Amino acid sequence: MSGPARGRRRRAAAAAAALTLVAPMAACAGGGDSGTPTINLYYPPEQNLRQVVDECNAEAGGRYRIVYRVLPREADEQRVQMVRRLAAEDTGMDVLGLDVTWTQEFASAKWILEWTGPDRDEVTDGTLDGPLETARYQDKLYGAPKNTNVQLLWYRKDLVPEPPTSWDEMISMAQRLKEQGQPYQVLTMGAQYEGLVVLYNTLAASAGGHILNDDGTEAVMDDGTVRALEVLRHLATSGVTSPSFSNATEDPVRLDFQAGNGAFQVNWPFVYPAMQEANPELAEQVGWARVPGVDAGTPGRVTIGGVNLAVSAHSEHPQESFDAAKCLRNAEHQKFSAINDGVPPTIERVYADPEMDEAYPMKETILEQLRDPAVRPLTPAYQSISTVTSAMLSPPAAIDPPATAEQLRAAIADALESKGVLP
Known about the structure:
alpha/beta; four-stranded mixed sheet
């Protein structure tokens, strides 16, 4: 997800939590005494998004007024709140901030409207293909990509002269460092949750594998996905992970690396400003690179996260909602959010802006990976698929590649038919 996966600055946490406490969650579909339509924006906590909302309201010139309704911090709670209200045909929801894995589910349920005509043209112009792919369902556009995200390889330049280009090479480097008594661990997310699914999806795509067919209607689990299972098991059993690997999530991984325990970290860009603040001396020794590939000489393809803006099918002000969403995610506001809230843009030209240089010194590496990303399986059943996948991959050291692939194929086939897993 943007889900497990969204980059966020550490210093944003307290302010965003405060926003969650004070923001009114009861929606008002009307516009009050002024007659100006209220556009209720339901969006995850983002510290500086209120400034973007204020600017869009000023640009609207009284045609509408956006009100930011802050969703809970946890992705599952966000989804539950929106699903319940949309299923009840609540007219008090207008613009929705959807994790990239939810767009197909909401579109198939007819809870969100298709982007068409000039509105569609405006949000597709200059937007990276990977984020756009997450916003489509049955070849129609149902979301406007507001921000994206992608993991990087963070490595100790004082321990490793050049970053590894494959997972096997990285594991071998770590084993040599361990023999030398140096910090050596390969730190990344291995707990039974979406972060483990993201790791596996990255490995599978990097190996040329397919979990589902192109239509998202059948479980495939081909040779590339079996190769990914082999790499994941190798990592877990090679003696170079943290002892807590099978319970590791994003922030504990960051803290472990920040404490000097690792030589390598695969994690989201939020670790960079956090490390500069907490351990500036270590930060000077840390470089970044593309996440390694499965095979030497073949670059890795990394799973993207992010948020798509969708318009509720029950909104009483659909055109104003489309206009509001376009303003919230235009190039200028994407640049502002990237610099101030650490959420990478989906509009490619924003990366060339000189103002991005200081906040995103790794922007070229991010952009390289975004130009050829891995996208999680695009299906309305993704939540069920993620649940069964994380369960069968945990703990990674217990994976039996051929057998696990067959078990996953059967479980994913059931999930596609809404069997076996509650939505």
